Amino acid sequence: MEFETKYITPDIKLSEFKGDRFKTEFAFTYHMLVWLLSGEAKLIQGDTTHRFAAGDIFLIPKNQIATVLILPKDEQNHRSVSMHLTPERLKSFYAGNPPAAASQLPKKMFGFGRHPLLESCLASLIPYFEVQGPFPENIASLKITEAISILRLVTPNIDSILANFEEPGKIALIEFMENHFMYNLPLEKFGYLTGRSLSTFNRDFRKAFHTTPQKWLLQKRLELAHYQIKESNKRPVEVYLEVGFEDLSHFSFAFKKHFGYPPADLFRDSLSQTPVPLPLPDTIRRKTS
Questions:
Q1: How many domains does the chain have?
Q2: DSSP reduced 3-state for 117
Q3: 48: nearest Cα among 160, 174, 179
Q4: Which helix (H) or strand (E) holds 17?
Q5: Of the four listed, 105, 210, 221, 246, which is most buried by Cβ atoms within 10 Å?
Q6: How far is CA 237 from the centre of its chain?
Q7: Closest Cα partner for 151 from 58, 35, 43?
Q8: Are 193 and 176 contacting, i.e. CB atoms less than 8 angstroms apart?
Q9: What range does the domain containing 258 cover?
Q10: How many helical (H) and strand (E) elements, i.e. helices and strands, does the chain have?
Q11: How many CA atoms lie within 13 Å of 238's alpha carbon, on the beta-carbon side?
């Protein structure tokens, strides 16, 4: 696989992925507006999957954990234009355009399809990626201001998200980790999103779960993988990325070490409906009931 990224400013980039598929987790510290030029993208947040095709435009709010799978389509590489709406840019915008008093929108991804105003704004950036030399900052500022203005026009109450500059506050650790354990993020990021330093996160985690984060995360991901293979007849190759593993070989090794048999055997047994005993963990039972 190969990534190629061209920047006209640190906040505006054109990305191209050459390969069969790529998977990663993210929790951006800034909002990101994305226009998918070719290929496909699947973004997974908990029980919700967002699918985007060529031409679609979507906004990813900051501090939202998601798994992203990017895929080529119709023999074309995955290509996208992204615009970072950083706190600095947004504070500068709202200094001259006070946010409207509005009800709170849920912090989730926003899909705009092929919205003509947003598409026109982002399409106007394409020629600049071929220009040699530094990109004028005043033009970059104008394009980002235009994008923010259009978002405010097409999405009522978006100020409640874009003009919110608060850092994550300290939240309940058990509930957050039960809902986000399948995301392969650094422990520092889990700490930040729960309003804790790394040392405080480790201390609070041991107190809440009576084990280390590393051991708990591994067990939870393996249990979820076991459930998906056995109950949903998913192949191991379909499961390992979605439960937080980066490598199929490592997943298979850890699975066999934990359960005593490889995931391929469980998949064959699930097709033949041969029972393989494993009680469903309470946390997964609650999530699937």
A1: 2
A2: helix
A3: 179
A4: strand 12-18
A5: 221
A6: 20
A7: 58
A8: yes
A9: 173-288
A10: 12, 10
A11: 11
The verdict on residue 167 lying in a domain is no
Verify that 246 and 131 share a domain, yes or no: no
Whole-angstrom distance, CA of residue 268 vs CA of residue 278: 16
Bridge partners, 85 (sequence order): 31
Task: Look at residue 281 in the predicted model and tell me its pLDDT.
Answer: 57
DSSP for residue 128: G
How many angstroms separate the Cα of 52 from the Cα of each of 170, 189, 244?
33, 26, 22
Cα separation, 160 vs 31, whole angstroms = 13
CA separation for the pair 152, 154 (Å, rounded):
6
Same-domain check for residues 12 and 149? yes
Separation between Cα atoms, residue 140 and residue 43, nearest integer Å: 28
Neighbours of 217 (CB within 10 A): 22
Kindly compute the dihedral angle of the four CA atoms of residues 29, 30, 36, 42, in this order, to the nearest 10 degrees: 40
**Tokens 């394409």, residue located:** 126
Q: CA-CA distance, 10 to 244, in Å (whole number)?
A: 29
- Token digits of residue 142: 């104008």
DSSP letters spanning 48-111: EEEEE-TT-EEEE-TT--EEEEEE-BTTB-EEEEEEEE-HHHHHHHHHHSPPPP-PPPPSS-EE
DSSP H or E run through 227: helix 213-232
What the block records as the tokens of 55 is 């031409």
User: Over the chain (289 residues), what is each successive 10-residue block's mean pLDDT?
Assistant: 84 89 82 95 82 94 86 85 95 93 79 95 93 83 96 93 89 92 91 94 96 96 94 90 88 96 91 59 50
Task: Specify the pLDDT at position 289.
Answer: 42
